[in-house]
Amino acid sequence: MNTKKIIISTILVLLMLGCDNFLSVNPQGELTQEAFPTTAADALQSTNGVYATLRSWNYHSGGFPILEFMSDDAHKGSNPNDGAGTQGPYENFTFTPTQDGLDRWWAGLYQGIRRANVVIEKVPAIEMNANLKTRYLGEARFLRGLYYFDLVRAFGGVPLVTAEPAQGYCCRNL
Amino acid sequence: MKLSVNLADRSLAAVKGTALSSLQILRWSVITLSLCLMLTAEGFAQQEVRGTVVEAGTGETLPGVNVRVKDTTRGTTTDTDGRFSIRLDAEQTILVFSYIGFEPLEMDMQGIDDDIVIELQPVVTMMDELVVIGYGAVRKRDITGAVSQIRSDDIRKMTSLNADQALQGKVSGVLVTTTSGAPGAGATVRIRGVGTFNNSSPIYVVDGVILDDISFLNPADISSMEVLKDASATAIYGSRGANGVILVQTRSGSGFMDGPVVTISVEGGIQQLERKIDLLSGREFAIISNEIRPGTYNNVDAVPNTDWQDLIFDVAPIQNHQVSVAGAGDWSDYYVSLGYFNQSGIIDRSQFERITLKLNNNYRLGQNFKLGNNLTIAPYRQRVSPNVTFAAYRAQPVLLPYYDDGSYGAVFNVGNPLADLANSNNHNSGVRVVGNVFAEAMVVNSLLLRTSFGTDAALNRGQGFTPAFTVFNPDGTASQQTNTYSDIFKSEGINYTWLWENTVNFINSFGRHNLNAVGGFTMQQSRSERLQVAGQNVLRDGRDFWYVRPGYVIDEANNINMLSSIFNGVDPGLYYNMISFLGRVVYSYDDTYLTTVTLRRDGSSKFSSDNQWGYFPSFAVGWNIDRESFMESVGLINDLKLRFSWGMIGNEKISYYDRFSGINAGLLAVFGNPDAAYVAASYGRSGNPDLKWETTTQTDVGIEMSILDRRLTFEADYYNRVTDDILIELATPGHLGNGQGQRIRYNAASILNRGFEFALTWQDQLGEVGYTVGLLGNTIHNEVLAIGGSSGIDSLLIGGFLANGQPVTLSRVGKPIGAYYGFKTDGVFQNQAELDAYPNMALAGVGDLRFVDMNGDGVINGQDRTYLGSPIPKFVYGFNFDLNYKNWDFSAGFQGQYGNKIFNGKNAVRPDPYNFEKHVWDRWTGEGTSTTEPRPSFGGYNFLPSDRFIQDGSFVRLRTLIIGYSLPGTMLSSLGITRARIYVKGNNLLTWTKYTGYTPEIGSFDVLSNGIDSGVYPIPRVITLGFNTTF
Questions:
Q1: With contacts defined as CB-CB under 8 Å, which chain B residues touch A60?
Q2: Has residue B66 been placed in a domain?
Q3: What is the pLDDT of residue A13?
Q4: By C-alpha distance, which of B154, B163, B138, B360 is closest to B228?
Q5: Is residue B428 a contact partner of residue B360, using CB atoms and an 8 Å limit?
Q6: Is B566 on the interface with A (CB under 8 A)?
Q7: Vertex A11 angle, CA A8 and A16, to 5°
Q8: What percent of chain A shows pLDDT beyond 70?
Q9: Is residue B306 one of the residues assigned to a domain?
Q10: pLDDT tens for residues A154-173?
Q11: Is A160 on the interface with B (CB under 8 A)?
């Protein structure tokens, strides 16, 4: 009886020692943000990522009501009904805070800024060719400046975010 | 010569159904002994008999036992020490001992001169039956939780693929809603309301394996199902039991000691559409179209009249057969069964076919050691048809399905449903293997050690092929319903879960104390992988060519594109590990005062290491009032129990990926001259490492009663369950750079479900007619208590998107989940004066609906939308009636719901000229013609989400009706057959409802889209004929 008890408890103890590892499961087929960018190839891809914002619809076509209609570069045109509710108000400066397009412009630009911050914060630590590194950092800084320029032109004073926040999802009072 | 009943023995034997016989042996040996004594001793003229009466098993002395000389009026009672003495004369030597709650005992006292000990057996009632409650079995009288049981006979009343269909209308508190009538479609099961915004389904435990569905299991292999509803019963399952637990016991061979028993069951029948929707005929549609767009049809009497519903629905066969063999020997028992189920759909090209092989064996190796296995292997094949219900609903009745040359006729904007069906080939197939092996050892006569290794493995394959085809317009040009290149889609997925459980069960009773305790440790792992590929331009249409080769699509620039898409990854809900520790103590004193305490500690890999572990305690008390001394005089009441429970249980059915912040590796940057694309990657979605379990805190107060010799039983509960820390996605400030519209999961919502449940059963015998009548029901009050932020966009959850992208449900604090939201209507503008007098949108005209200005601001806009009703019923009920007379048996089961509303989504989506429902015929055509139905139009203002599309979804349905005849035993025994029965069965025969759609049962696995009818595959009426025999 005693030996049985010893055997059983030993098995249980061994199992529990193996426990902690058993409960950590890594994501499959996906990198996590802790692990990227960490190599020279990652540094190149993450810098290209900052450029990718320039290709996103929100940037290359989504800003036209703000930048073009509200300046003297262009009129809305087309027939009066076309986009009367969505883009028309920019023409007359009668847009509301929830106007279609404002959140896309804001969110899209800050996403570009975040991508630039990732490069600026994490690439210096990577072991790689010094010239390439300087180039990547320079490109990221320039693009970040461009995105802030676009934000300020549209909204005036905006939050300055130059580093990844301690908790990327933070700032909720629940 | 006392024998203590060892309940541990009963757990091994009694759970499997054999009666314990050693007490019987004892009793008979006492009688034999006294007979021998009588034969050898000389009779005396008068003798005095003295003795003590005790309770068999516990040895407790019983005062007040009635001791009477048989056939006389002479008698006495035992004193406070259970002792008695009585004089007998030579003729009457038999004493009769009787006492409430015990079997009466007659004993011949002749020749006995010593003090004798008389043992009285307690009456074995259904309160002594063991009920399986998860990691053990407990006597029904000791249960302190809300547990309902449904037995095999009731399970087999529904001819269906899945046994959970049998629960509806038979178990209070459970709502089973079919999501679709298509063969193989699942149903949503909700126990005590809708618990969360995420997965609200209960878990099933089959053969020791914890599962999410039981579609692989042949209902004929099930001996009983127990539904655990409250915290006391489900807490032992900790972080998975928040939505209830359904235990499924499969059959075994024990009890069949007299040689193998073979059972054959054959059933086949037809299914048909229960009701059609009333749509406009060709002529009526032409008239209405001319009102909307004058001149569309020159001669309304000459237009064709196509009934598209008749074309797509047909009568379809269904069959369900099974053969099983069960037997037991000295050291083992076995149950082997083979089942075959085949259901064709009432819409063409839909079907489900399944074979189930079940092997359940138990081996007794030695007195105290047992091995066993339970295994089910279930291959299946399924064909899924495209959703032509919605197409047939919308297709204009003035169009022809075929042209004169036999080719498909074009149906504008909708597509010819017959062409869609003919060109669809969607096949799924696979195998599911579920089972376990286990070993049990009895140690020191009251400790049962058990270890069990179970697995749930599935291999699923899917393929879909659409050939290139064109449906032509009448003028010969190609219509929109054209597939330029053939498409092939293939997927392969494999997932498996293993579960290793180790428990120690301690069952003992000493004196009046009864203890049933269990402690355990479990580990579980779940893994999955899926591969999906799609290609185009397959060489030929035949099945032999349905493979994804570098088939190619040539685009305008003459580029060849290879595989058009590929996906390879894991199923995010099926990739995790879990460890659990569990413990439960069930204690009863004198079978009267009961308590159950449970604690479970779970760790899951789905949460980060700080939040991995959770504690789920529960506490319950019960009082068997019928055992109290003050209840002895109340002969009317046989059993009366009051119980109360409280507990916390968890839900962790989220994607394993939600806590990780990932990288988006699919970006592109363009540089150079000429432009070239370069791969890019950067931070993608943000995860929340602070995620933890959803927790449900449930309180339950219940009463169970049976009276009039247990002919009437009644059970009622009040339940209150609050689910906190519900995982929902909320938006984050844009400057954090997550991208536009990105949301992150937080534990940030709360939902309340509460209500009453009751079940009343009357069972009696009137001469040769035996009958049972059952009535049950439950109320549900569902309310969202909190969502994310207290105001703004995150205090609402918008859902229920229709085909045109319009949302119709809004979940917010104070209202039920998935509540409908839209405009309230108040009649039709009869004339211009009315139009001018009341606020309306610019688009409204005379004859259009008047929307109520809810906020009184003089403008009709989005702010005037309001709560329009809930998809969750307020009251769910069932009524069952069973009758048997000689060899005939009859059974009818009704189910009903009240208070739920349905959103007729298919009526509301109308961007193009579609057919209308019949009520449109009563339209407004001038002042005073209609106050409810506006002037007809093809979409637009009158089709904004409003209560025009909300209909009452209450219904009563005759769910099962069975008439059976068992062939007389005399005829059978000569053939060596034990039982043979032939029956006629009908399922879903009649439905009484005000809803105008095919069926008022509109379920959805997405709790925010509940109750929205977007063209659901109708649930058919099934009529079958069956025969089963046992020999």
A1: none
A2: yes
A3: 60
A4: B138
A5: no
A6: no
A7: 125
A8: 83
A9: no
A10: 888 999 998 887 665 554 55
A11: no
Is B580:B238 a contact under the CB 8 Å cutoff?
yes
- Domains located in chain A, CATH noted: 40-155 (1.25.40.390)
Residue B649: strand pairing partners? B696
Length of chain B: 1031
Q: How would you write B911-974 as a 3-class SS string?
A: CCCCCCEHHHHHCCCCCCCCCCCCCCCCCCHHHCCEHHHEEECCEEEEEEEEEEEECCHHHHHC
Q: What is the CATH number of the domain that holds B101?
A: 2.60.40.1120
Helix axes A102-122, A40-55, angle to 10 degrees: 160
The CB density around residue B582, as the number of other CB atoms within 10 Å, is 23
Q: Which residues of B touch A34 (CB under 8 A)?
A: 661
- Are B819 and B800 contacting, i.e. CB atoms less than 8 angstroms apart? no
End-to-end CA distance of chain B: 42
**Which pLDDT band holds residue B34 (cuts at 50, 70, 90)?**
very low
Radius of gyration of chain B (CA): 34
Confirm whether B417 is domain-assigned.
no
* Residue recorded with tokens 């994310």: B788
What type of residue sits at position A43? A
Looking at the complex, does the CB of residue B665 fall below 8 Å from at least one CB of chain A?
Answer: yes
The one-letter code for the residue type at B865 is: R
Write phi, then psi, for B969 (nearest 5 degrees).
-60, -35
- Supply the pTM of this predicted model: 0.78
Who among A12, A106, A158 is closest to B521 (CB)? A12
Question: Which CA distances in Å does B790 have to B364, B729, B785, B821?
Answer: 62, 15, 11, 19
Give the strand order in the sheet containing B66-69.
B75-77, B66-69, B94-98, B105-108
Write out the E strands in B511-564.
513-536, 553-554, 560-561
Q: Which residue of A has its CA nearest to B576?
A: A25
Contact yes or no for B626/B613 (Cβ under 8 A): no
Give the separation between CA B19 and CA B953, rounded to whole angstroms: 49
As a whole number of angstroms, the longest Cα–Cα distance in chain A is: 93
Domains in chain B: how many in total?
Answer: 1
Which residues in chain B are closer than 8 Å to A23, comparing Cβ atoms?
A: 577-579, 603-605, 609, 612
Give the pLDDT mean for B633-655.
85
Q: Is the pLDDT confidence value at B152 over 90?
A: no
Tell me which chain B residues have a C-beta less than 8 angstroms from the C-beta of A33: 661-663, 683
pLDDT tens, position by position, B566-613: 778 788 888 899 999 999 998 888 888 999 999 989 888 988 888 888
Residue B437's Cβ-count burial label (10 Å; 0-12, 13-18, 19+) is: middle
Residue B585 structure tokens = 């103590």
Residue B26 in domain:
yes
Is residue B9 within 8 Å of residue B130, measured between CB atoms? Answer: no
In chain B, positions 129-168, which contact chain A (CB-CB < 8 Å)? none
Contact B530, B571 (CB under 8 A): yes
First to last CA, chain A: 54
The three-point CA angle B308-B311-B317 to 5° equals 140
* Domain housing B47: 7-124
How far is the alpha carbon of B787 from chain A, nearest alpha carbon, in Å?
9
Please tell me the distance in Å from A76's CA to the nearest CA on chain B. 23
